[in-house]
Amino acid sequence: MKSFIIAFFVAVLFILALIFGARNEQIVTISYFVAQGEFRLPVVLACVFLAGFLLSWIFAMYHIAGLKLALRRNRKQLALAEAKLEQTMVSEEPSKKLITKHSNNKEVDA
C-alpha cells in the first residue's frame, strides 16, 4: 500500500510538471556533445523529471535488493544457530536429569 501511495504521488507530480510545461510554450535549445536540438520546454521538463525518477528508482532497487540478500543470509545464520542451540540443549538435558536424580537421593545437612 505504501508503494502505491508513493507511485501515485510521483504520478501527480509528473502531471503537475506537464501542466506547468503546457503553459510555457517556449522553445529551448539543448546542445549535445556532437549535435544540437530544439525542443519545447514541457518535453524537456518531462524527460528530465522522468530520467531523474528512473535513475533514483534503479539505485533504490539496487539498495533494497542488497538489504534483502543480507536479511536472507542473516535469517539462515539465525536458523543454524537456533538449531545448534537446540541440539546442544537436547544433548545436555539427560546429564542434568542424572545430576538432579543423584542430588535428590542425598540428604544435605545445612
UniProtKB/TrEMBL annotation:
Gene Ontology CC, one term: plasma membrane
Keywords recorded for this protein, A-Z: Cell inner membrane, Cell membrane, Membrane, Transmembrane, Transmembrane helix
GO biological process, one term: lipopolysaccharide metabolic process
Function: Involved in the assembly of lipopolysaccharide (LPS).
Cellular location(s): Cell inner membrane
All residue ranges annotated as the Lipopolysaccharide assembly protein A domain in the record: 24-86
Protein species of origin: Shewanella fidelis
HAMAP family documented for this protein: LPS_assembly_LapA (MF_01948)
Name recorded for this polypeptide: Probable lipopolysaccharide assembly protein A
Sequence similarity: Belongs to the LapA family.
Gene, per the UniProt record: lapA
Residue spans crossing the bilayer: 40-65
Membrane topology: Single-pass membrane protein
Main subcellular location of this protein, as a coarse class: membrane
